[in-house]
Design brief:
By secondary structure, the protein is mainly beta. The protein has one helix at about 55-70, and strands spanning about 5-10, 10-15, 25-30, 40, 45-50, 75-80, 85-95, 100-105, 110, 120. Strand 5, helix 1 (about 55-70) and strand 6 (about 75-80) form a beta-alpha-beta unit. The relative contact order is 0.15.
């Protein structure tokens, strides 16, 4: 995790007056502890991660990524289930189009340096 950032689970990100999606995981700027905090602004978010389930497929694959990109969140990861094994799709924001570009698909091991160094054996996540 980069210095000055932390991972949080299921915390709203305010994208507009009526748009407050709740990513499964977000990497956000570390702030003083605030027990009353219920959301983050897009400028505070480095990465959002959505874990796709049957009930959330369209939201997690289409709706949420489009809105995160339009809000300027630079990195998005989507985690899918492929025959009981996690597959991670890694995206980076194209600022010219305000859309995400796929930069990698990871099956056995998620290893990347963007937006920060990560090396995770994905099969360890399902044990």
């Amino acid at each position: 995790m980069p210095e000055g950032f932390t991972a949080v689970r299921e915390m709203d990100v305010v994208l507009g007056e009526r748009h407050r999606p709740c990513p499964d995981v977000s990497v956000v700027k570390r702030a003083p502890r605030d027990l009353d905090r219920t959301y983050y602004e897009p400028d505070d978010v480095l990465l959002v991660v959505e874990v796709v389930s049957k009930s959330s497929e369209i939201r997690d694959r289409e709706t949420k990524p489009r809105r995160y990109a339009q809000a300027g969140i630079k990195h998005f990861w989507r985690v899918e289930n492929s025959d009981g094994q996690p597959v991670v799709y890694v995206y980076e924001l194209d600022p010219a189009t305000a859309t995400y570009a796929l930069t990698g698909i990871f099956h056995d091991r998620l290893e990347t340096n963007v937006p920060f160094p990560v090396d995770v054996a994905l099969d360890a996540l399902v044990r």
